[in-house]
Amino acid sequence: MLLVVMLVGIVAALFVFGIVDTTAIELRRNQDTAAAFANVKQALIGWSVQRTSSGALPNARPGELPCPDMNNDGFEDGNCAAGALGRVPWKTLGIPEPKDGAGETLWYAIAGPFRIWGVNANPINSDTKGNLTVYRDSTASTITTEAIAVVFAPGVSFGAQNRDTTATALCPTTGTNIALNLCAANYLETAATVNNSTINGPFISAPSSDTFNDRVMAITTADLMPLVEIRVAREMLALLDLYKSAAGNTCGCYTWGDNDFNNEGDNDVFRGWLPLGEGDPHIWGPPPADPGPPINLGIAIPAWLSNNDWWKVIYYAVAPDESQNKSGGTLTLDGVPGTNVILITPGPAPQGVPRPLNAPGTAAYWAEYLKDAENADHNDNTYVRPSSTAYARNRLYTRP
């Protein structure tokens, strides 16, 4: 009997150890997947924020995202359809190959409005919305309908999934014959009738089962746009500095604002849009062959700022003392006078709310962009720093 008791104890101990060991392995896999998700999200946002025009990429712009890697070489494909589905282009992002807890490289879908310029010439700014839908558990619960990107951890293969690197077959995702390891259907599954291997979605995040083990992460404009706006505001302030200090600027002043939504400065206008098309009293652009009034200051506006309508979404205020008139006082910020220029970035448009809904320049229009009541009244030169501590919010930038 003692021997039987000992054997029972050993078996029980082995059973418990097996449970604990399995749980530890699963926990470690989940941690590896979570870390890979975090690294990819950070890399995608960082890549996007740093984009800029160059000789080889004349229309590259902050806010756009790389196409997925469709041939498993680690690099983005330079051409992709809306909602294209492939692996994360980790070499393009400059990161180690991101693998989930099962050792599989992460997959990635991109929303059409955030693709690179070569396949999407529509503006990308604070008003641009993603259009990928991600459900939670079932189609009755939605995580977002406006994801700009969706990242997948495919996990181990299930059922008929075949990830062979040499064989080819008809891929349900693309409708073409491609290598089995390039077909999303061999990595991503269906839950609650939602198939994650479908181009342009919708997609689903659901509990693991005998037929589903995808892990899903949605990225939205609230994740990306605040950092892009910081980049844009800093570029705009640098341009304003160049404008004021340019040798041809006879008044040593900043440009007037734009109050009729035509991207041109208007005399005696201290607030509204920052006119990147044509400043006043001087013009930004390179000097013409026959220089004359109005004077061109030889300042090149970055193509990506012009092409993406950033002037339409960022509020600009200039102190009367720093305008052509050189009189009328400074801007008051938080009750203290002395500020010369203020830019206010709006943050991304709230989910489900298109922007703008109201006529440009009206109080209702600016109320869509400026959420702090103190900054929504444009009849004076008094402003306050936004009180919200939310990540996606109004932010204020100044020149003293």
Structure description:
The protein has 400 residues and is of the alpha+beta class. It has two domains: 31-219, no CATH class; 223-399, no CATH class. It has six helices and 18 strands. The chain has helices spanning 2-49, 90-93, 221-245, 303-307, 363-369, 373-376; strands at residues 85-87, 107-110, 132-136, 138-147, 149-153, 168-170, 177-179, 190-191, 194-195, 203-205, 215-219, 271-273, 315-318, 331-333, 336-339, 341-345, 382-383, 395-399. The chain has a four-stranded antiparallel β-sheet. β14 and β15 (336-339) form a beta hairpin. The protein is elongated, with a radius of gyration of 27 Å.
Summarize this, please?
With 400 residues, the chain is an alpha+beta fold.
The rough form would be described as elongated
Radius of gyration: 27 Å
The number of helices is 6
Question: Strand sequence of the main sheet, in spatial order?
Answer: 1-2-5-11
Averaged pLDDT: 92
Low-confidence region ranges: none
Describe how the helices and strands are arranged.
Blueprint: H1 2-49, E1 85-87, H2 90-93, E2 107-110, E3 132-136, E4 138-147, E5 149-153, E6 168-170, E7 177-179, E8 190-191, E9 194-195, E10 203-205, E11 215-219, H3 221-245, E12 271-273, H4 303-307, E13 315-318, E14 331-333, E15 336-339, E16 341-345, H5 363-369, H6 373-376, E17 382-383, E18 395-399
Parallel strand pairs: 3-10, 14-17
Antiparallel strand pairs: 1-2, 2-5, 3-4, 5-11, 6-7, 8-9, 12-13, 13-16, 14-15, 16-18
